[in-house]
Amino acid sequence: MSETVTIAAIATAPGRGGVGVIRLSGQNLLPLVATLTGGKTATPRLALYSDFVAADGTPIDNGLLLYFAAPASFTGEDVIELQGHGGPVVMQMLLSRCLELGARMAEPGEFTKRAFLNNKLDLAQAESVADLIDASSQSAARMALRSLKGAFSNHIHALVDDVITLRMLVEATLDFPEEDIDFLEAADAKGKLQHIREQLDGVMAQAQQGAILREGMQVVLVGAPNVGKSSLLNALAGDDIAIVTDIAGTTRDTVREMITVDGVPMHIIDTAGLRDTDDVVEQIGIERSHKAVQQADVALILIDPREGVNARTQEIVDGLPEHLPCLEIHNKSDLLDATVLQTQQYIARASDVMTLSAKKGDGLHQLKQALLKQVGWQGEAEGLFLARTRHLHALQAAAVELAYAADCGEAIDLLAEHLRLAQVCLNEITGEFTADDLLGVIFSRFCIGK
Ligand code: GDP
Ligand code: ZN
């Protein structure tokens, strides 16, 4: 373990609370305990009730002190938690006292970073700490905890082990030229590679579902003015957040709302009319709308079936990114005579046509189900990992290398190289070969005190 300075932070959320926690991590913290408690000593994992005193011996606060001796702690170093009274002033005074005693303020995620650097957690587990704290739904929280306990990492480690075993076989063939392709065949290298690819596909499928739950999906509402975009947003969100008016072009801003459907977060984004205009305020809204559309996972193209697709709608549809999946939504079904209620498809690129009434709320359930289907949600959160996009990319890159490996024929040196690269990709997930700057990015997104 490298020599590290003691770090300290208020670990509880800002504001008032019954109890506030200050956390410290460093080496040999017992002298600090003695000074802070006016001469007491702490036993690992045993709560110590004490005054916490200032330099002149006057109490700042009293409460519980928990001591975890290295290496049996979250960070792998000596860790102290001070449970004091949860007021902002007293917490600040206590923190200042810790800084006075030689600690420095912890950076965001620094406790978890130390846990990673001391091999208490791998990188995927460290990330799941932040994901657990940031979880926006119960399913996401459960998945993050599973990843934290190592469910995801264990799969990756198993894959890496299999790749290493195969690599040893292949490299032995390279080292001993008399062992040729027949040797690999006899050892069923092909079968072993195939098995690894299947395992990887399985992990990737689970991770993809996990990523859906973590990242949610971006749904943009597009269409001509007055087709009912704002109304649909409100209907989906269940309350009034956008201004609904009868004057065309009054939705001047991009308005977004997050809903969850079967535990899947969905960011619904209402766009301004997406048209050329000289109005500055409107232009800003339109710019944001364009950005939202570029980042979207699916577009809902709203039309008023009494008007069909007018020039405005056509212009908007033509402006959508080429590969953006679209659903055609016929709104205001309540204004249609039931006998003429028909779902004629106007927009060729739309994968589905649905009729609904934003005003009456008819058809919203079907719409939500269609969105779940669109994103590929299998409807089962149990057993998934809360994977990040970073993990998905690494898994995909590993899959590509393994596919190349399977295509190498008798070029054993190429086979060896692709297997090596596949392993590098997998190791990136758990952090064995991760560049320092990536670590910096990952941990800087944590909150202070974690
Ligand atoms: P936007 O410009 O596309 O955002 O459209 P709005 O949501 O502002 O709606 C324009 C007008 O259509 C408002 O008067 C809404 O009340 C009305 N409207 C929206 N959806 C429906 C619907 O399903 N049925 C009926 N009857 N009117 C609707
Ligand atoms: Zn609107």
UniProtKB/TrEMBL annotation:
Co-factor binding details: Binds 1 potassium ion per subunit.
Where is the TrmE-type G domain positioned along the sequence?
A: 216-376
Binding-site list for (6S)-5-formyl-5,6,7,8-tetrahydrofolate: 23, 81, 120, 450
Record EC number: 3.6.-.-
What cofactor(s) does the depicted protein rely on? K(+)
Query: What SUPFAM superfamilies does the record point to?
Result: P-loop containing nucleoside triphosphate hydrolases
Keyword line: Cytoplasm, GTP-binding, Hydrolase, Magnesium, Metal-binding, Nucleotide-binding, Potassium, tRNA processing
Annotated K(+) binding sites: 226, 245, 247, 250
Q: Which GO terms describe its molecular function?
A: hydrolase activity
| CDD domains according to UniProt | trmE (cd04164), TrmE_N (cd14858)
**Record-listed GTP binding positions:** 226-231, 245-251, 270-273
- Source domain of life: Bacteria
Q: Where does Mg(2+) bind?
A: 230, 251
Instruction: Give one Pfam family, short name only.
Output: MnmE_helical
Q: Where is this gene product found?
A: Cytoplasm
The record's function comment reads:
Exhibits a very high intrinsic GTPase hydrolysis rate. Involved in the addition of a carboxymethylaminomethyl (cmnm) group at the wobble position (U34) of certain tRNAs, forming tRNA-cmnm(5)s(2)U34.
Q: Which family does it belong to?
A: Belongs to the TRAFAC class TrmE-Era-EngA-EngB-Septin-like GTPase superfamily. TrmE GTPase family.
- Complex formation: Homodimer. Heterotetramer of two MnmE and two MnmG subunits.
- HAMAP family the UniProt entry points to: GTPase_MnmE
Protein name in the entry: tRNA modification GTPase MnmE
Chain's gene name: mnmE
